Structures are given as structure tokens and as C-alpha cells.
Amino acid sequence: KAGVTQTPRYLIKTRGQQVTLSCSPISGHRSVSWYQQTPGQGLQFLFEYFSETQRNKGNFPGRFSGRQFSNSRSEMNVSTLELGDSALYLCASSKGRGDTEAFFGQGTRLTVV
Amino acid sequence: GQNIDQPTEMTATEGAIVQINCTYQTSGFNGLFWYQQHAGEAPTFLSYNVLDGLEEKGRFSSFLSRSKGYSYLLLKELQMKDSASYLCAVMEDYKLSFGAGTTVTVRA
Lengths: 113, 108
Fold this sequence. Notes:
Chain A has no helices and eleven strands.
């Protein structure tokens, strides 16, 4: 059974640009959550999608957005990149209905220069 | 929102036992998770508690007291490979909020 796949693994962007990250959940999982991890702030929740609907959103500016497709794959987009957006972006998938385990992908390491 | 507190660092000897405490304050509660994260890798699931009591999984056990807003992760028979960051996380409304993590160093 394939795990959670995130692409790309590494990305370097310039301030002001935008970026799109992709997450393919485990087959059969309908919930995808996104997190930002930095040394200073730890793991911070961005948003969660289930069956193409956003069910919860963290305290991030509107530059951070996401969506989920009918096949449960999800993308997150960050527009007008700032230096502080440099982080490891992780997605986690789960069945999404009262299940107990969320599986994380390997993450996308974004560096903004 | 949640306030999740856990110690920053702990050091223990190979073969010993270490207990990592986690306290939380939350307006809603759908479960408490423990994850292990090695440097440069993604977090991996260790345990889940939604009811009070102890859950045992091999060398790892996790305890929850909802009335006290308290959990601990117990690592027994420590091995060098257990050196990692251990993250306590609380689930509320499909949102996992994480503590800052406890870095455990296992020494020979």
C-alpha cells in the first residue's frame, strides 16, 4: 500500500513568487491536512479537507490556500511568498471519519530567498 | 484553541525508561496523539488516546487523564534508535494541534 506522497520534495523560490505543493493521500483516505513546520514555531495546522470540503482552517493569512480534488489529492498554494514562509510543509492523510491515525508524507522543503 | 506543553529535552541511558509528560488546555477534545519524528523525517504515529487510561503498544505506552488535561508517553527498554523528537498533539474539530516536541537523547 503506497504511503502519502508529496511533491516536490524540495523547492527554492524568490520573494513575491507563488508556489503550489501537491499531496496524494493513501488510497481510500478522504481527509488531507496540511501543516507548516519551522524550528521556531513547530508544527502549525494550516487546513483540513474532506471530500473536497474544507472543514477547518488554522491561523494563517489568506496568502495560504488549498483545495482537494474528487480523487482526494490535495494542493496548497502560497502566493506572494515571504522569507518567513521558508519551512517544511507536511500533509497527513486519514480516513477522516472518527479514525485514529493520520499518516504523514515526507514533506516539501520550501526555501524562499 | 489549545495550549500544549511538554518538556523541551530529556536524556536517558540505553535500556532505561523515560516518561514524557504533556499537559493541554482545549475547548473541545477528540483525542490525544503521540508522534515520533527523527531529524529530517516526517512524524510517525505512535499512539492515540481518547478515553482515560493506559494504552500499551510494545515498548511504548501512553496514558490520558481528560479531567486533568494530562497525558504521558512511556518509553521502555530504550534503544539508541529511540533518539528523536516526540510530539504530543490534541485533536479538535478535525484539527491536530501539536506541542513543540520533546527531544529525547539516548546515551550508551
